[in-house]
Task: inverse folding
């Protein structure tokens, strides 16, 4: 049986980059993994790990493929809270949501409702992953609320426990 076709990507800073062709383009068109920039597809590190685990992506360092554990180790050095971010990303993707970066808004992720592709409609939530063991200060919680309110989105907080299970809380504004 022939080996399953994979996207070949290289790490550049905090992204994995692949040519915008073949399987990479197909997965982007169908499921919106990555962002197209300069005729390449750039993946967030959490997206790259997800596709690596799904056996759709090979991360290359030179000619050698990077293993999952090495990729996690390197990514954890590059991104604060990488594992919590990944666990939440994976859980939301497995539930059928499209999840994109919200860095320009000052948040971790934008989440699109099931069946909605970025560009067709706006994201429904701003999502912040939080480790149960690290907790959350009122100051941080207030900042999250301000970001969600200013972007006209609902705030979704994903609490990751020690077993890497996620519990979600939706915070909305109400007027009495």
Result:
């Amino acid at each position: 049986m022939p080996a399953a076709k994979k996207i070949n990507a290289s790490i550049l800073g905090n992204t994995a980059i692949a040519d915008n062709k073949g399987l990479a383009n197909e997965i982007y068109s169908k499921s919106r993994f990555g962002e197209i920039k300069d005729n390449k597809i750039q993946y967030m590190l959490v997206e790259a790990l997800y596709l690596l685990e799904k056996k759709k992506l090979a991360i290359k360092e030179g000619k050698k493929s990077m293993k999952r554990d090495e990729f996690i180790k390197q990514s954890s050095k590059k991104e604060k809270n990488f594992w919590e971010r990944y666990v939440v990303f994976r859980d939301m993707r497995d539930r059928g949501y499209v999840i994109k970066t919200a860095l320009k808004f000052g948040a971790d992720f934008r989440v699109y409702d099931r069946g909605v592709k970025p560009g067709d409609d706006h994201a429904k939530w701003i999502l912040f992953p939080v480790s149960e063991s690290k907790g959350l200060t009122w100051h941080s919680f207030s900042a999250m609320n301000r970001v969600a309110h200013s972007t006209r989105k609902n705030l979704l907080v994903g609490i990751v426990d020690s077993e890497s299970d996620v519990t979600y809380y939706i915070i909305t504004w109400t007027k009495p």
Remarks:
- The chain is about 30% helix and 30% strand.
- The first strand starts at residue 7 and ends at 12.
- The first helix runs from residue 22 to 31.
- The domain at 80-171 is CATH 3.40.1350.10 (Trna Endonuclease; Chain: A, domain 1).
